[in-house]
Structures are given as structure tokens and as C-alpha cells.
Amino acid sequence: MAYRRGPGVTVKSEIACQILESIGYPTKQLQIGPPIIYKGMTSDEVDVALGAWIPQQNPMLDPLKDQGKVEVVQTNLDTAVISLCVPKIRL
Predict the structure, then answer these.
(1) Which of 70, 28, 34 is nearest to 52 (CA)?
(2) Alpha carbon distance 59, 35 (integer Å)
(3) Is 31 helix (H, G, I), strand (E, B) or coil?
(4) Could you say which DSSP state residue 37 is in?
(5) What does the angle CA 44 – CA 48 – CA 53 come to, to the nearest 5 degrees?
(6) 50-82 pLDDT, tens per residue?
(7) CA neighbours within 13 Å on the CB side: how many for 81?
(8) Is 38 exposed, middle or buried (0-12, 13-18, 19+ CB in 10 A)?
(9) Residues 6 or more apart whose Cβ sits within 8 Å of residue 14
């Protein structure tokens, strides 16, 4: 099963599902949040998550990595920046 959260992961999830299904693996996509994803990964209810916001999710992810319950297998964008922003006010 491939699980996704948010629009930025939709295309990657769909491609992964199509590849997995073409080689015989059933898939199911759900939009669920990080706490549910990580809990599901430790209980074998979630097989893969294709979108983690690191370092923002590290407090949830790091303990699971340290316990050997999850593994980060690939980094997609290692220079992306996450912050708050507002439109520029034009006077």
C-alpha cells in the first residue's frame, strides 16, 4: 500500500502505485497525517510514506528511526525551505 498526504506527493504516489500494481502488488492510497502514518508504519498498517517534511517531523520520526522501526530510504529535496510567509504589501 502507498499512503500519501498533501498535494505535493500525489503524483509520486500515483506513479509508485502504478509501478507496484504492474508487478502484482495491490495498493491503496489514503490522505492521512504524519502521526497516523508513523503509527501505521510501526504496526505494519502502512508500508510506505512518500512525503515527510524533515526536519519539522523529526520529533515524531527520530525515535522510530532510533528504534529501527522505520527507515528513510531517499531524500527528494534536501535544500527546500519551509517557513511562514505573507503577500508583500504594495503601497
Answers:
(1) 34
(2) 11
(3) strand
(4) H
(5) 120
(6) 888 888 888 999 999 999 999 988 887 788 777
(7) 3
(8) buried
(9) 29
